[in-house]
């Protein structure tokens, strides 16, 4: 039977594609029209992007994949679009137990707003590819019906032999041209195979010509020209599961994805993917191929690696208490080259207030720089209010430092006041790059942590002189009622002991003095904190209170 409208003639026996489709997929009742109805165009405002992160459930999110998911999330958010998490698990071997939940948890920890995902659902699901096999079969059947797909019964051995022959003849590897043996099977031959119980894969009937070019636009790389695809790739494997390419076209179409952001390694497959889109006659989404996050390794630059780089794991950040927002701010600097300058001028704003664009994305792999991330983090934490820092610190300590957690929750107000020293002002101190930095820098504020003290005395190290200073201070000059008064008293103390009360006097005539008020202040500071480097001493003393100050100074006097 010849049916020109169906347009396919397989082998010498003519038949309609419809008959072939019935033969291959007798039980597929769902049609692509059903799917079109079930998953209609989204009702979003003009310019809204529908984006997705589509990992295989092979493990926790790491810095590379976190960055790769940050990008589509940012674009969906800033255009009031939709961000989807889709799990691509058609390669079952790589799936780990609980993998989906772990990925979702990691993304949620970073406050990504995921509008549709496998666990919370959505209107365009299922969002796990192995739960969409029926849909793929409907689309596969459709391609058979329109003459763009055919069954292939070649065995592994035959395919191996073909590959060897191609290698020997130095020809391109793949199922194409004269090597595409099953492309011309007759209906009867197909039927015979099926009656025999032979397994088949479904292949694309490619119409491409490798000697011709296809030109397409990548949102990051610009215009790209590659040879057309002419390989009859596998659309559905013999177990009914599609490989990546076919599945992503069906999914991105039905989920109404407008912007596909994915790894750069897919770029060479775009001609094949475009052939699939065109075979269906679907509107092609925009593609943006992302360069992987790279890291400096000695003299070379390479892709960041879960195995080699401890800072690739997101546990590295959670354990240290590096704020998620700081990591995202850092990502923003990697995402658009003009972000950093904008942020410097808009420090009170969030990265969400910036308009990111694809064309400001780097065309070479973004280089991951932990030091820079920590600097951004320092800056970020310095701008938080005392309540925010306290809340985040408690949250971090609850998981990573139980003793400290107990202490800071016991002394909540006191701790907040400590965290507020030189904060909530125009130029706040930038002491902490992460929450795990804090304890080591404020331990002296808690008697519980202030033991086995090693004093780091500065210019004055003579213990008798130190005693003299502390004694006189407690006897005559202790006063924290007001900052000016407090300092005035320290000046008087200095002068009484032969130190300049005024720095200018000291600089003008250093030989007239034993030292200056700075040396005296330093003795007071070290006697209370053990350290020469602390935030504002007046604030520290006010918070410590008279009793604790006396106790600490007396402990030194008694030694
Ligand atoms: N599942 C693919 C991967 O993990 C994602 C590709 C895509 O985003 O389309 O590499």
What does it look like?
Mean pLDDT is 94; it is low at 1-14. Among the domains are: 37-131, 3-Layer(aba) Sandwich (Rossmann fold), CATH 3.40.50.620; 297-382, Glutamyl-tRNA Synthetase, domain 2, CATH 1.10.1160; 386-436, no CATH class; 463-558, Orthogonal Bundle (Arc Repressor Mutant, subunit A). The chain starts with 16 loop residues before the first helix and ends with a helix. By secondary structure, the chain is mainly α. Helix 9 links the parallel strand 8 and strand 9 (286-290). Helix 11 crosses helix 13, helix 18 (463-477) crosses helix 19 (483-496) and helix 21 crosses helix 22. The chain has 22 helices and 11 strands. The structure holds glutamic acid (GLU). Residues 54-56, 88, 248, 262-263 line the site of glutamic acid (GLU).
Can you give me a brief rundown of this structure?
This protein has 22 helices and eleven strands. It is mainly alpha-helical. Helix 1 packs antiparallel against helix 5, helix 14 runs antiparallel to helix 15 and helix 18 packs across helix 19.
């Amino acid at each position: 039977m010849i049916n020109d409208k169906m347009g396919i003639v397989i082998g010498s026996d003519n038949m309609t594609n419809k008959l072939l489709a019935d033969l291959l997929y007798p039980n597929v009742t769902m049609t692509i029209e059903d799917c079109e109805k079930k998953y209609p165009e989204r009702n979003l405002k003009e310019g809204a992007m529908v984006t997705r992160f589509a990992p295989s459930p092979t493990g926790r999110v790491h810095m590379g994949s976190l960055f790769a998911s940050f990008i589509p999330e940012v674009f969906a958010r800033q255009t009031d679009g939709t961000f989807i998490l889709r799990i691509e698990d058609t390669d079952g071997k790589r799936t780990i137990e609980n993998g989906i939940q772990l990925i979702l948890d990691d993304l949620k920890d970073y406050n990504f707003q995921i509008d549709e995902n496998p666990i919370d659902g959505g209107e365009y699901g299922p969002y796990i590819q192995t739960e969409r096999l029926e849909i793929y079969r409907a689309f596969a059947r459709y391609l058979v019906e329109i003459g763009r797909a055919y069954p292939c019964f070649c065995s592994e051995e035959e395919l191996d032999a073909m590959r060897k022959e191609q290698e020997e003849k130095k020809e391109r590897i793949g199922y194409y041209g004269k090597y595409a043996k099953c492309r011309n099977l007759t209906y009867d031959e197909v039927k015979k195979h099926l009656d025999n119980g032979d397994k088949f894969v479904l292949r694309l009937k490619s119409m491409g010509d490798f000697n011709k070019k296809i030109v397409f636009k990548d949102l990051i790389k610009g215009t790209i020209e590659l040879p057309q695809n002419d390989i009859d790739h596998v659309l559905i494997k013999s177990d009914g599961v599609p490989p990546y390419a076919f599945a992503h076209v069906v999914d991105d179409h039905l989920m109404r994805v407008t912007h596909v952001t994915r790894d750069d390694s897919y770029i060479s497959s775009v001609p094949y993917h475009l052939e699939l889109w065109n075979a269906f006659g679907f509107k092609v989404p925009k593609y943006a191929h992302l360069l992987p996050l790279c890291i400096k390794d000695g003299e070379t630059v390479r892709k960041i690696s879960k195995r080699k780089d401890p800072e690739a794991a997101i546990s590295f950040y959670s354990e240290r208490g590096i704020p998620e927002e700081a990591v995202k701010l850092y990502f923003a600097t990697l995402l658009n080259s003009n972000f950093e300058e904008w942020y410097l001028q808009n420090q009170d704003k969030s990265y969400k207030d910036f308009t990111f664009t694809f064309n400001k994305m780097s065309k070479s792999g973004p280089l991951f720089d932990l030091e820079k991330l920590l600097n951004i983090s320092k800056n970020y934490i310095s701008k938080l209010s005392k309540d925010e820092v306290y809340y985040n610190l408690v949250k971090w300590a609850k998981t990573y430092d139980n003793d400290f957690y107990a202490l800071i929750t016991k002394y909540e107000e006191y701790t907040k006041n400590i965290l507020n020293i030189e904060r909530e002002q125009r130029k706040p101190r930038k002491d902490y790059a992460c929450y795990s930095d804090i304890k080591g820098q404020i331990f002296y504020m808690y008697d519980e942590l202030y033991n086995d003290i090693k004093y780091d005395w500065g210019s004055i190290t003579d213990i008798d002189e130190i005693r003299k200073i502390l004694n006189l201070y407690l006897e005559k000059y202790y006063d924290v009622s007001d900052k000016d008064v407090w300092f005035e008293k320290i000046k008087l103390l200095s002068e009484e002991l032969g130190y300049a009360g005024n720095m200018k006097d000291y600089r003008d005539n250093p030989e007239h003095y034993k030292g200056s008020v700075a040396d005296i202040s330093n003795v007071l500071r070290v006697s209370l904190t053990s350290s020469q480097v602390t935030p504002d001493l007046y604030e520290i003393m006010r918070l410590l209170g008279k009793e604790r100050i006396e106790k600490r100074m007396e402990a030194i006097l008694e030694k």
